Each structure stands twice: as C-alpha cells, then as structure tokens.
Amino acid sequence: MPSARRLQPTPAALAPRIGLVGATGPVGASIAAALAAAATPFAAIGRSESGLAAAFGTQPLAVRRAWEPDTAAGMRAAFHGLDTLVTMVGVPYDAFHLHPVLMRRTIEAAAAEGVSRLLLIGTAYPFGRPQAARVDETHPRTPHTRKGQLRKAQEDILMAADAAGTIRASILRLPDFYGPGVERSFLSDIFAAAAQGRRARVVGPIDTPHEFIFVPDVGPVVRDLIGCDDAFGRTFNLGGAGTITVRDVAERAFAMAKAKPRLLVANRAMLRLAGLFDPVMRELVEMHYLLTTPVVFDDGALTGLLGPLAKTPYDAGIARALAAEMETCARKAA
C-alpha cells in the first residue's frame, strides 16, 4: 500500500476514522471545528500540503493528508484506515464534468480501502427550477442546466453504490452560503465592500427572497449526521434561517459599517457580456435562474432525524461576516 504524498505521521491515540475530502474550503473548516469541539480526530484531505498546513497546522486533532485524486493509488493512500468520508471537493466552475468522474473514483478507492460510509455535501442544482414554494427530498430532480445534470449524475453514482451494497451513502444538500472568510458567494462582495467603504458588486435581481446558509451552522449538522446510522441510504436538504433579499443583506451590512449602501448590480445580459471575456461569468449565466426563481429548502426530514437545528439569524451572521472582513482589512493595513 503506497503512503499518501508527504503523509503526516499519526500518533496511535489520534488515529482518525473520519476523513474530510476537500477540507480546505469554508464548509470543511466548519465541519472540522464541529469535530474538534467534540474531541473527534479527523483526517483533513486536500491537494495542497501548504493549504492544509495553513488551514489545520494549529489543529491538534487534524491529521493532514495531501492526496492525488488523479491516481487510484493516491486516493487509496489518503483514505487508508478511515471508516467515514465527507466529500466536498470543489472543481473550477467551468469544469463541472469532473464531479461525476471524481465521485466514481472516490467510491472505488474508498471501497478498496474498506471505507464503509460516504456523505456528499451537495447543492440545489440537481432539482432544477423549483416546482414548489419549499423543496423537500421528494421534489423531482429535473435539472435543465448542464451543471445541474452533472451534479445529478454525481448524486446518482453515489446512491447507486449504496443500492449495490458497495458503500453506505448519504447526501446533504445546501443552499447558497455565506459567512466569515467565504469568498465564493453571491453575498461575499457586500461584506468586503462595506468593510472597505466602496461599491459592492452583486448579481441581480436583488429584491427576490433568497435562502442562504451561514457556513458555521453546517459543521454541527454534518457531525451529527455521520454519527447516525439511519442517515445513510437517504438524502437530506438543509435550509437556512428563512429567506432574505440581497438588497436587505447589503442594507444591514452597510448600516453595521456605518455607511450608506452602494451597489453595482449586474443583470443576466451583463453576465452574458462579461462571459465573452471571463469563462466563470459565462458559466454563471445558465445558473441565473437561482436568483429569479430561488430554491427554498424544506429540511423537515433532517429535523425529524436529528431534532431542532441551530441556525444563526441573518443579523448575527451578517455581523460576523462583516467583522471578519474588517479584521482582514485591518491586518492588511497594518
């Protein structure tokens, strides 16, 4: 069995049974914090050893494993000795075709290493345009976008492996998210702009009620979900703390920064024009329906399994996201 690339030595007392795949993003940080709060060791798995060190270098319960997802041996080495995987691997926005490919490889490597359970952190994309005011797990998955179809394929591969007895599988779908240090969000530039005293760049329409999950709220849910045998073989949606408009978020954030909100709003036509020069903007055009007809999750199945879920109110979440941006600005100024 090959060892993971520059595998960090693991004291027997800290041998992890849980692996976070794609751990260096904000959702990974939230799950890691929840596991650490429960004194649970875990393996933080990612491509970049420097990124892993920056994210988890001071976390005594984290075992860092830099993996090589392009090879079966590199995957197996990263998963060696683990029992449960939580995968939240990100790909470039113009490379969504990799999601099904990576899922298939992950399942094969995990099964070869004796990993028994896998939880995928998913999105609303597979549902397509909402056909109900609130979307639960029984809502048809009829994606009309290429990204939604590829995310659906990713889900189908995983749940087919569960049905075949290859691995126990579960999916936790999240809405759009925001929070401290979150850079890829419809709301992220609002907090940066309020902290810097400039105009915020947002995508319109900005007066449609939308749902956002505060990222630090995700970790405790994932921790409890992977600790529950009845969670596997099923899929779940996790909603935010109600709905809010982009304009309302901006007004609250700028008010907290003691400034008048200033917004530069891009509509679909502007996104299409920007897409002529920016591949990410070009890819964002097909997902614009999420702003005009947002998916709002019904997470009754999740609360039925785990009980009441702690959700940070928008005012508190906005304040924490803004405080993080202000701290970043102060650090750069110093």
SSE map:
Blueprint lengths: L17 E4 L4 H12 L4 E5 L2 H8 L5 E5 L5 H8 L4 E4 L10 H15 L4 E6 L23 H18 L4 E6 L2 E3 L9 H9 L3 E4 L6 E5 L3 H9 L7 E4 L5 E2 L1 H11 L6 E4 L1 H7 L4 H6 L4 H4 L7 H7 L7 H20 L1
Parallel strand pairs: 1-2, 1-4, 2-3, 4-5, 5-6, 6-10, 7-9, 8-12
Antiparallel strand pairs: 9-11
Task: Tag the structure with descriptive keywords.
single chain, about 325 residues, alpha/beta, Rossmann fold, UDP-galactose 4-epimerase, domain 1, 2 domains, seven-stranded parallel beta sheet, three-stranded mixed beta sheet, 13 helices, disordered N terminus, NAD(P)-dependent_oxidoreduct, NAD(P)-bd_dom_sf, Epimerase_deHydtase, aldehyde dehydrogenase (NAD+) activity, NAD-dependent epimerase/dehydratase family protein
